[in-house]
Queue: 3 jobs
Job 1
Amino acid sequence: MMQRFVAPTVAKHQEQLALVEKDIDREPALARKFRVSGTPTFVVLDAQGRELGRVPPDNNPARFEQRLLSAARLSSS
């Protein structure tokens, strides 16, 4: 269910956000760097790769979008 709205939510804010999916089994060093032990994990980074926040998995599209924008420090307008 959640996968159906993650990409459209990011696309809605494509001027400020980009979705990058990684396979933590194939990239364990990256998983360790960002302390990812399970999926899905949404880590919000700035343009320099610094972590801004994390968004917990959520099956509610509106709440997921609000949390994503909050973690990215963006307004919902």
Job 2
Amino acid sequence: MGLEIGMSFNCNVKAGENVLIITDPPKLEVGKTFGRIAHELGACVTIILLRDITERSIKPIKEIDNITLAAIRASDMVLLLITEMPEELEFREQIIEEAKRNSKLGCILKEDFAFVKFRTDCKDIVERTKVLTEILTKAKKVIIKTEYDKSHSLEMNLGGWSRTAGSDASLRGKRTFNDQQAGEAFIIPTEGTSNGEICIDLTMSQIGALSEPIILKVRKGKVIEIRGGREAEELKKLLKKGEALSDQRGIPPANNYLIAELGIGTNSKAKILGMAAEDEKILGTVHIALGNNTFLGGSINTPYHIDGVTKRPTLIIDGETIIENGKMKPIEVLRNLFQHNYMDFFKEAQDLSSFSHIRKISEIGKVKRNDQKELLYRLWEDVHEGRKHETRVGDSATAELASKIWKRIPEGYSISIRELAKELEAEDKVKMVLCVMKTYELIDIKRTK
């Protein structure tokens, strides 16, 4: 029953849809299992078997052949179930570009498959992931500390609405790329802002479960030192290989060492398997990635995307502890964090002149009636799943005042704070609410003395 639930909820398979499964011999039995379940749900299933892969050193697939390309374009869903090779990232990205929805199992062994793949409470994952995705989108600064050594931490800046986060909670909606084991909120940190040290003590992509921690020292968004034992040496060799492949493709070799992603695990049912693509979904874990993030909407292009997972981190976002020693705050608590009240912006508002002019950034603000009040919401889109979200602008009192101001700012024109205050509340209150709206990037303020 778990597989049927997973295919119908996570993959959103519907009767009459065309499901294409692209697999290779090591994953063929897994592909057949998915195919059988999809067929029982009423889908029309096609399986494409790629050439034999018996060793990881075999020459990787570089491009999609015309037959496979035509099959992808004719499908409603594509499941990519192949033995994962970092050199095939471009091949997978080509499939992602063509597919409407795409799922990957990576290196899951078939004997692990039935036991682990859908050990999930889908609604719980979706809700928790949504809340964390919103928090990451709002956030400006993150600090990660690890159980192994709390004297060291990794700090990074986020965009604070200038760069939205992504979620991996199911396969519903507009797709880009996903692991079948759902449960992750992630974001691309602001380039060049990550500094400090982080301990990777659970799993590393292409290496597996770690017998001893790998310490990464980061300066200005780039790993400059790797410490540890045998597995740290394996990572160094892997990155050197990435440098060589990058050089062959005209890509800066240094890109392999750049911090590409910050992710938070949200799946309370996920178990440790020793594979980064699965372990990073475990509730309370944090992972960072090195290298490629183009398939996440970023600009770093390399042959590799290497995830490193830490199992019992402490995660602090804009001064709030979200995870402490691997224990995440309850959804109810997370949901109420960062609900700005305009009074918190009293000091900032003092710097605004009455003659400063306000111009709205159209199409990202929306006034909605809620509990007999009109409130202002900030519209945004999940960078990964393509879902459209509405985030209330501050707490209820702030959002109510913001809605009045929003309705009075003319489309395509600016208005002074003094003019707004004449029609609305006291000028000081208007200034404070405007500061909140600026934080949500709903308005531009042209300051005057």
Job 3
Amino acid sequence: MRSDTNSEKFSPGAAFAKQQDRTAAQGQRSSPVIQGMLGNALQRHRAGQLTEAARIYRQILAIDPYQTDSLICSG
């Protein structure tokens, strides 16, 4: 049996903070429209409106199939 030394647990709050950092870093590469849509999706995701957030992530990926934050957050 394998024993992991890294016992950190997944934290949605920390994951979203990292996503926001990445989003800010990508801001110069992504269009303002996609950034606005992503901000909206992340707000809905945090609020537990997962169906609506997933719909927005899919819309973003229809525009930019390689948009990292949408790929990660949409699972």
